Amino acid sequence: MAGIGFELRKLLARDDLIGIAEGYGHAAIATSGPWLFTILALSAILALGAPNAPPSELAVFRLIIVYNFSFSLVLTAPVGIVMTRYLADSIHAKDVEQAPAALLGGLLITYAAAAPAAGALYAWYAHLGRLTFLAAFVDFLLIAGIWTVSVFLTALKNYRALVLSFGLGMALGIVSAALLAGPWGAPGMLQGFNIGLAVTLFSLIARIFAEYPTRASRPFIFMPYFRKYWDLALAALAYSIAIWADKWLMWLAPEHQTLPIGFVSFPEYESATFLAYLAVVPSLAAFTLTIETSFFEKYTRFYDDILRHVSYGKIDANHRDLIQSLMEGARNFIILEGSVVFVGILLAPQIFDFLRISYLELGIFRLGLLGAFFHSGLLFLLIVLSYFDLRRITLAIGGLFLVTNCIFTLATLKLGFAYYGYGYCLSAMVAFAAAFLATGHLLDRLPYQAFVRGNSSVAQ
Amino acid sequence: MNQRPTADVCLVLEGTYPYVTGGVSIWTHHMIEAQSHLSFELVCLVPERAELEPRYQVPPNVAGITTVRVGSLPAGAKPRGLKALCERLEKPLLRLQSGGGLPEIESIMAELLPFGSNLGRRALLNSPEAWELILRMYQATYPESPFLDYFWSWRAILGGIFSMLLAPLPSARVYHPVSTGYAGLYAARAHLQTGRPVLLTEHGIYTNERRIEIAMADWLYRPAESGLTLRKSARDLRLMWFQAFAAYSRACYEAAARIVTLHSGNQHFQLADGAPQEKLAIIPNGVDYQRFSILAHQRAEHLPTMALIGRVVPIKDVKTFIRAAAIVRELVPEVQALVLGPADEDPQYFAECQALVTYLGLEECVEFTGPISVSDYLPRVDVLVLTSISEAQPLVILEAGASGVPSVATDIGACREMILGGPQEEPPLGPGGAVTPLANPTATADAVARLLFDPDYWKRASQAVRERVRLYYDKPSLDRSYRELYEYWRGVPDRAPAEAISSKDAA
User: Fold this and answer.
1) B49, A10: Cβ pair inside 8 Å?
2) Could you tell me where the DSSP H helices lie in B256-317?
3) Taking 90 as the threshold, does the pLDDT of residue B452 lie above it?
4) 3-state DSSP percent of chain B in helix, strand and coil, to 5
5) Burial class (CB in 10 A: 0-12, 13-18, 19+), A284
6) Which ipTM did the prediction report?
7) How many CB pairs under 8 A join A and B?
């Protein structure tokens, strides 16, 4: 009976089922890793005393490092997240042949953005000697390169290599900075630190070429991802600007200092907040572990079982398991982080006495602790959201964090010194609350999200 | 919703004319041409992603073509009251899966119509409210089955239903679906919404074809059988598909004023699917008797000849024809066996047939002609042979019959009625050949040999089949049957649309 009807198969396009499993897990460490490294490195450097270096040289060194870390993190965030996404998809498709090429392409883009930015910053804005300029410029490029390269090792989940490279490089950098401080001053310290950074960068690159021993042929293969995932790139940019927005805006405070080289800073605010950030390191590390092990396992099972054609009863049970595992992670986080913050707030005067820090920073430190608590909670939720590929929501929350941090910080500037620190703290709370509501809503209707809203095979 | 004046007839065509070639398309084309005094609207139901390229020059009395993609819904809005709508849809949708038909379609439409053009896939398929509906229906019907497959089946089935109920509806005096299935569902909806009569023509039995297709489907996941476990096994999701198509058929049968098919064999299936006996009618396909009748007077001198007219493809079972030829040759050594038709469609099958000819030593006897004009060959054919394993109403039997050539055909579709006469034949005209079991070369050969051996028998058969075609299968007289049907139902006065719908119709 030719002619009547048509194949049912056309009604039920089976190839499309895979739409559900798209957007496989990525980006857990990609976001928390660099942040951990930054906190540790900057705290170490700010606490670093070089007995044989004049204090003014030390200040120049510290400030250049703070500038380089903050600006390079912001600059590379969009590239890093888009490359993470590209790599996660390549790994999911079991085709990582173009990874070394993508590394080259990513570095080229990073440097195309970083070199003019660093050049402009140090050549026009600051008044540096030729040697200091060169060292600061190289330092910026090295740090920017490290952010881009580390994306590859995190996507590979090769954390051992990552930690080893960072640890070795940091140790070497701090020691040689201290050694070179005496004879050469600030440029010497910078170049000493650069030696360590170079070790980190090149050992990471070597590791990647060892992992993917193919020839690099199409370095810009991931470029279409920028168009496809512009919202992801924008979210990363907003979030990373938000992290620094209050520090930069506080430079406008009447209490700011201007170094002879032309850089402004507000050392009390910066050292207080970085000290507060140190407090979140243990819980951030513990949480990252939860995400990578227990949650990732539940997450994978939830999606794999769907594709294994289980009944809805099983899907429902997996859904509960997944929420349960997040709840446990959250509980551990609140207990661990909460007690650190509580103890920190209570014992702040004793800590300041011990570290011989000015009591002027006490308020900022306490607010910073509270802010860091909500900030790391926010990071926790952003990572969960990124697992479910909710890019617009992530973008909205990153944007909210950025806007509130700017507005609230500017408001505290108007209100005066007594209010310094409230801006960041309140903004972290607001962004956390928004992320909490969004994540709760998502997790509540995860099966619906998986089958309908987040399914690229369903015509929306 | 339609600017054009009300047409006389709206043909509802699923997956066929004018985009697909084939028997039904040819039938449709001739039908429109033969009823040139009537204006037609065509509603063409096509798969969601099909590429559309017309294969026919549509006659001028077609006022408009409405193409509807099955399962494709507009995005639509998310109107107020969606939660309540999804709750009220649940019952009729569930009943539709367990023996429901036209009343359920009416309930569903009564719920949908007040929303006007607001509804689309966002509300009916993608909303959280629709998701709750999926889960409730799943729990009520197939709670242990693979949910991924249920989900896609649900979307495809409900998307199909909603797309039929919400698609544009041209205004017409008579709605004429050319199959049940989605076309039948669409026509049932048209009947409910306009109150106008529905005439159904079924060439093959839609639900049967779907049943075979679903039974063989590999696109539905089936859990591995585990014979020793006591766990309650999941209900087979294929049932859900069967029931959906059965429901569309029932709805169409209930809505139809007349249910026409090509031969009485189909009517058993229609009755089994719930068609009321009193609505059933047979209008076979016809051939131009005059044109082929002339050939009866042009018979040329020739060797005894049996011929198969058709493509060389497995469904025609050409191998049985070749084997039968080998047996006939034992009795009639000079017999010629012709395969008249293109051989390029399935090269591998053609090669197998040629190998069989060589194996049986029939090189002198069997000939593959390739594409030919039937009228050129019929004057030198003694017996038309049809060994197909599946046909509806093969017109070659009628073409041969009109030119006085008896047929030996397998007992499928309308072959028995065309060769031996149907129940309505009064007085009986006698056999115009023979019908044989499927894939039985001996039976085919016996019947052919008898016709070749016995000139008197051949003559009787030749006259009987010619007369039968003239009386019952002449195209002009069959065209008249449809003309009369249309004429009657077109004139039936307007009736109010279904009550539940008219009271809620926003338009």
Assistant:
1) yes
2) 264-272, 289-293
3) yes
4) 50, 15, 35
5) buried
6) 0.79
7) 120
